[in-house]
Amino acid sequence: MTGRRRAAAVAALGFLLGGLLATAWAITTPFWIAAVVMTVITACARRPLRGA
Predict the structure, then answer these.
(1) Residue 32: half-sphere exposure toward Cβ, Cα within 13 Å
(2) Which of 7, 21, 35, 51 has the least CB density, counted as fewest CB within 10 Å?
(3) Quick check: 22 and 15 in contact, CB under 8 A?
(4) What percent of the chain has pLDDT over 90?
(5) Backbone CA torsion sign across 42, 16, 10, 7
(6) What is the 3-state secondary structure (H, E, C) of the chain?
(7) CB of 10 closer than 8 Å to CB of 17
């Protein structure tokens, strides 16, 4: 699978999951989940950089 196809597949999956979450709860739920996930990823990525 090429890079573009993989990116399109991931985007489609995110679109589908975001739509399901927005339908099940509130319209802003996917944005809050994305904010929390990005905060965790940033914290995990920053930890190794502090020791450098």
Answers:
(1) 7
(2) 51
(3) no
(4) 21
(5) negative
(6) CCHHHHHHHHHHHHHHHHHHHHHHCCCCHHHHHHHHHHHHHHHHHHHHHHHC
(7) no
Measure the CA dihedral 19/31/13/43, to 10°.
Answer: -160
Task: Give the pLDDT band (50/70/90) at residue 10.
Answer: confident
Distances (CA, A) of 44 to 12, 14, 31, 50, 51: 26, 22, 20, 11, 13
Q: At what angle do helices 3-24 and 29-51 cross, to 10 degrees?
A: 130
